[in-house]
Design goal:
By secondary structure, this protein is an alpha+beta fold. The chain has one domain. It is built from 2 helices and 2 strands. Strands 1-2 form a two-stranded parallel ribbon. Helix 1 links the parallel strand 1 and strand 2. The chain is flat.
């Protein structure tokens, strides 16, 4: 069994280049999923690098 997970992280205070951009908890969860045959990605919406509604919609439609 395999699947693809999509995590969305909204951080209005961190810049895209900040070490706080991706929360470590989501990184750990995704690493564990990868070890067990699943794939996934983390999308971010940051202070200086916004996730557009159109891109979000496209990624959701392509992630089953």
């Amino acid at each position: 069994m395999s699947g693809h997970f999509l995590f969305v992280h909204v951080n209005q205070w961190a810049d895209f280049e900040s070490p706080d951009a991706i929360p470590i908890s989501q990184g750990y969860i995704l690493a564990s999923l990868n070890r067990n045959g699943f794939s996934g990605e983390i999308l971010g919406d940051y202070q200086n690098h916004h996730l557009s509604p159109q891109l979000f919609k496209t990624l959701l439609l392509n992630t089953k």
